[in-house]
Specification:
- Strands 8-1-10-9 form a four-stranded mixed β-sheet. The protein has a two-stranded antiparallel sheet with strand order 2-3. Strands 4-5 form a two-stranded antiparallel ribbon.
- Strand 4 and strand 5 (142-144) form a beta hairpin.
- The longest helix is centred in the N-terminal third of the chain and has 17 residues, at 3-19.
- By secondary structure, the chain is of the alpha+beta class.
- It has helices at residues 3-19, 23-32, 57-71, 91-94, 105-108, 123-126, 154-158, 197-201, 207-211, 227-234, and strands at 44-49, 86-90, 111-115, 133-135, 142-144, 165-166, 190-191, 216-220, 237-238, 250-253.
- Bound molecules: iron/sulfur cluster (SF4) (3 copies).
- One iron/sulfur cluster (SF4) is lined by residues 66-67, 70-71, 85-86, 115, 193-196, 206-208.
- One iron/sulfur cluster (SF4) binds next to helix 7.
Length: 254
């Protein structure tokens, strides 16, 4: 990606992070105004309330479908070839290090929504030879430029969360209801959640957050008055594998 293209993507992210304008994002924008007004003061993060997904497979599917629809994600049956930006796993898989067989069955089997953690110290970006993936300085979003991806899969090996998927073949025939406004990918390219950077640039919240009806909260972690910070200040939260030093920015509450 040229420097200009990257700058453009960073600028749109910064503008979006500071000027989020739809209903939900008004909160983020309003609360960001309490910060120092510098785009580098923005650190976008997500809080997922796991309790809201217990016995609610419809809500889980709604969040996944919103992402699939928005981003032309193919539906592939073969498990090893699936393209996953957001998916669910039982609690015991999502938080292996929390293993505790005395936990109630409801918690052990509780579905947990997983996506890229938009790590503050992302090992995936360090290994990319073409800078097709990078952490955006303006708001911390870990981005992808599919035009630069050469499919080496170093980033997949480096990600300890399995948050990246490889297109083993042309995904286009497996896309239901192609969304003309979003680019499709091709065989040999890696992809993942980008925190809906295209929606942020339009002043919208991520698609999954929009349909989650309060079960997912999105905002500026650097703003002490933002909804994400308020929740984290009052609730016990977990992150996936924080001991690895990746500084994941998806927080889970129960
Ligand atoms: S979750 Fe994985 S893909 Fe996402 S930023 Fe962290 S290391 Fe990279
Ligand atoms: S697969 Fe693509 S994004 Fe991942 S390291 Fe290789 S070039 Fe970079
Ligand atoms: S933030 Fe956007 S890209 Fe990421 S999982 Fe949610 S809908 Fe998909």
């Amino acid at each position: 990606m040229s420097v200009n293209r990257r700058k453009f993507l960073e600028m749109t992210g910064a503008i979006a992070a500071l000027g989020l304008s739809t209903k939900g994002l008004e909160l983020v924008a309003k609360n960001s105004a309490h910060g120092n007004g510098n785009s580098s003061a923005v650190r976008l993060a997500m809080v997922i309330d796991m309790s809201k997904f217990i016995n609610n497979p419809q809500l889980i599917q709604k969040c996944i479908d919103a992402c699939v629809k928005e981003h032309n994600i193919p539906k592939i049956e073969k498990k090893t070839h699936q393209i996953k930006w957001i998916w669910d796993e039982p609690y015991t898989h999502a938080f292996i290090e929390q293993e505790n067989e005395k936990l109630p069955k409801t918690i052990q089997e509780m579905p947990v929504l997983l996506l890229c953690n938009h790590c503050d110290n992302p090992p995936c970006t360090d290994v990319c030879p073409t800078q097709a993936t990078w952490r955006r300085d303006s708001d911390g979003v870990v981005m992808m430029d599919w035009h630069r991806c050469i499919g080496c899969r170093y980033c997949m090996a480096a990600c300890p969360y399995g948050s990246r998927s490889f297109n083993w073949f042309d995904p286009r025939p497996d896309i239901d209801n192609m969304h003309a406004d979003y680019p499709t990918r091709k065989k040999g390219v890696v992809e993942k959640c980008t925190f809906c950077d295209e929606r942020l640039a339009r002043g919208q919240i991520p698609a999954c957050v929009e349909v989650a009806k309060g079960a997912m909260i999105f905002g500026n972690l650097n703003d002490p008055l933002s909804p994400v910070r308020r929740i984290l200040a009052n609730r016990f939260s977990l992150r996936r594998k924080p001991e690895l030093g990746t500084h994941p920015e998806i927080y889970y509450i129960l």
